Design the sequence.
């Protein structure tokens, strides 16, 4: 339990560090606030994957843009793929999901 909490804290800290370079906003890019919101959503989804042993968090990538979460990578079964989507939908700030996870046989 302590290891999960520590891992979640490390993931959150690393995600926070990625926000610093994003302070400059160019035309066509998200605002700093949107970038921070998307980073927070991504971190929360990844943390929930780590906490839930029904999905392999290391095999699934998570990206967020304007509240749309894209899941990619590999799952061992369609059940795992569906569970990853269900977990992501339960995260505050998620507006929609693009589930591009490939099921390996």
Sequence:
């Amino acid at each position: 339990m302590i290891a999960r909490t520590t891992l979640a804290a490390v993931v959150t800290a690393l995600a926070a560090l990625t926000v610093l370079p994003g302070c400059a906003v160019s035309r066509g890019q998200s605002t700093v606030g949107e970038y921070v919101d998307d980073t927070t959503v991504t971190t929360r989804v990844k943390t929930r994957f780590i906490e839930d042993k029904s999905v392999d968090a290391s095999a699934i990538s998570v990206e967020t843009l304007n509240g749309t979460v894209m899941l990619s990578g590999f799952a061992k079964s369609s059940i795992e793929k569906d569970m990853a989507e269900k977990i992501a939908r339960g995260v505050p700030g998620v507006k929609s999901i693009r589930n591009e996870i490939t099921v390996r046989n």
